[in-house]
Amino acid sequence: MNILIEKFLLHIKSQLNFSKHTIKAYKTDLKEFMAYAKTFDMDNPEKINRLFLRGYIGFIQDRKISRNTLLRKISSLRSFVNYLLSENNIENDPFALINIPRKEKKLPHFMTEKEMEKLTDYNRPEEIYRQNANYKFAERDFALLEMMYSSGLRRSEVSFLNIGDVDFISGFVRVMGKGSRERMVPVGDNALMALKNYLDTRPQPLKAGMPFFVNNRNTRLSDSGVALLVKRMARRARFARPVNAHTIRHSFATHLLEHGCDLRSVQEMLGHKNLETTQIYTHISLNQLRKVYDNAHPRSK
Question: Cys bridge to 22: 18, 30, 173, 253, which one at CB 3.0-4.6 A?
């Protein structure tokens, strides 16, 4: 089965353009399934049946993992089974008539506009230098924050940016998102100014193919590096609750909708494949609408 799993992973990478994070997760899930199957002498795909899959799903449910992690593990296995069916490695679908739990929908955490202003103000270069005159990356940190909030980029998308991806004339950034899907996203004037100021601190000359955000070794800032910087920026702003890169992305989408942006445009800017993924933000906006109504209408109570 190990060879078939490797072929499947190559298939979803080369043919389906799955992201490296998804491929890594699928590989972990399928290796785990293979280890489980070996303990029951079921590592031959032709032996896998509906009863065995139900037992495996029960096994991973007993580990008290989150609903969404459980569904991802099932999805990994289901995709692998579909691949085996398409390649005629098995004849019958063992997932037939198996009831799959529904995905748990959680409202994303986001910051209010005042909280975003606070995060921005505490991370302006002049404020950083006031606290630590020897810090060398204040312009980078501020440009990173402005870019993420201005355009709603994932941390991996920020990491992959090259200098040539930002068009300072048109005010757009070219982003390579999940599944190697390319999109163009607007960049606000404040963010463009912060990006220009940051590039002025970089060693010259600058070329289009060079990484936009770099670390202290002058190499590309990794997505884990982006995550670390966001945590550091939240500490500077003295936030008590956790703030991460996705919090900023969720805030971007929420604030756009609250100010009247249509859902399709938000979907396009976020790079969501399906509108259903973007619709979760409408719940937040409706909650905000309810608060506005309750505060404004004399007969709301």
Answer: 18
Q: Which of 56, 83, 149, 281 is catalytic?
A: 281
Q: What's the pTM value of the predicted model, to 2 decimals? A: 0.69
156 Cβ contact partners less than 8 Å away, ≥ 6 residues apart:
19, 21, 223
241 is catalytic: no
pLDDT in tens, 22-79: 899 999 999 999 999 999 888 788 888 889 999 999 999 888 888 888 899 999 999 9
Decide if 293 contacts 300 (C-beta within 8 A).
yes
Tokens of 94: 């063992």
Question: What is the C-alpha separation between 50 and 97, in angstroms, rounded?
Answer: 8
181 is catalytic: no
Contact 199, 208 (CB under 8 A): no
Annotation says 149 is catalytic: no
Looking at the domain that runs over 113-294, which CATH code has it been given? Answer: 1.10.443.10
Q: What is the CATH number of domain 2-86?
A: 1.10.150.130
Which amino acid makes up residue 66?
S
Catalytic position from the list 118, 202, 231, 246: 246
* 249 part of the active site: yes
